[in-house]
Design goal:
By secondary structure, the protein is mainly alpha-helical. The protein has 5 helices and no strands. The model has no long low-confidence stretch (mean pLDDT 97).
C-alpha cells in the first residue's frame, strides 16, 4: 500500500478541497518552522510521532528533513527509543483498565 508515488495524489485533494488544504499546508509549515524550538528538534518530534503512528510517509519525509536539519544517526536512534518507550508505556498504563479497582 505504501508507495511514495501516492503522494502525487495530494494534488487531487488540493484541487477538490482547496480552502481546507491551503489551511492545512499553512498550518503544517508554521508548526514545523524554526521558533522557540529549533527545526531539527521539531523534525525529531515529528519522527517520534511517525514511529508511534507507524506512518511510512511521515517517517520518510520527517527523517529526511531531520537529517537535513542536522540530526545524526544517534539522535534518530534515540528518537526511535523514546517513541518505543512511550508506545510501550501506553500499553502498560492502558492495561490497567483490564483490572477491577482494589478495595
Amino acid at each position: 500500500m505504501y508507495d511514495k508515488k501516492n503522494l502525487a495524489r495530494l494534488q487531487t485533494i488540493d484541487e477538490n478541497a482547496p480552502e481546507a488544504m491551503k489551511a492545512f499546508w499553512a498550518f503544517d509549515k508554521a508548526a514545523l518552522a524554526d521558533g522557540a524550538i529549533p527545526v531539527k528538534y521539531k523534525e525529531l518530534m515529528a519522527c517520534a510521532v511517525a514511529f508511534t503512528t507507524q506512518c511510512p510517509y511521515c517517517i520518510d519525509i520527517h527523517s529526511n528533513r531531520a537529517r537535513k536539519a542536522g540530526a545524526s544517526d544517534k539522535e534518530l536512534a534515540e528518537t526511535v527509543a523514546v517513541a518505543a518507550a512511550l508506545r510501550a508505556g501506553a500499553a502498560i498504563t492502558h492495561g490497567t483498565h483490564a483490572f477491577p479497582d482494589r478495595p
